Amino acid sequence: MPEENAAGLPETPHELPYDRGRVDELVGRVRSGERVDLLEGLLDAVAWEAFGPEEGGSLSALERAQLRDYYRRKFADVGPLYLAELLSTEFMTEQRARGDVVFSERLLALGRTEPELWAEIRRFFSRKEMATAMLVAAHRPNGGDGEG
Predict the structure, then answer these.
(1) 18, 42, 24: which is closest to 94 by C-alpha?
(2) Could you give the 3-state DSSP secondary structure of residue 36?
């Protein structure tokens, strides 16, 4: 059980390993109008394969289900805004990795004294904030229809 071996496990949602492609899929579903439970969406995006035994191999289906349930209980009180912020950060990181969002060399070199660089930063965060807003608006606890 994860509770018995929790010493080596990530403690916060921020520390979990994510498959950013799965985060991208979640944002795509939300864009299509689907309402989601953000904690379940976050757990769906975890790269569970990273939790395999040190000697190699992968978790069994039961071990994966137990670990997911452990984190579901551990993070049950984490609010949707935090989850949406985390997921939207992962989303934007994936956008940068794919080249959909490109930072200029001047920005990467921290050339913040030029006004056009500030505009570039603002465009990035505007897009991130939109993804956050969509995720928060789509949050539906337990994947239900707003009840419970």
Answers:
(1) 24
(2) strand
pLDDT digits (tens, 9 = 90+) for 75-116: 998 889 889 989 998 998 888 888 898 887 877 775 557 677
Q: Residue 96 in 3-state DSSP?
A: helix
Is 147 within a domain? no
Q: Is residue 3 part of a domain?
A: no
> Tokens 């579901």 sit at which residue?
72
Instruction: State residue 103's pLDDT score.
Output: 80
Positions in the chain whose pLDDT score sits under 70: 1-6, 110-112, 114, 143-148
- Neighbour-count burial of 92, counting CB atoms closer than 10 A to its CB (0-12 exposed, 13-18 middle, 19+ buried): buried
Cα distance between residue 136 and residue 116, in whole Å: 30
- Residue 6 inside a domain? The answer is no
Domain containing 61: what range? Answer: 11-142
Q: Total domain count for the chain?
A: 1
Distance CA 36, CA 139 (A): 5
pTM: 0.72
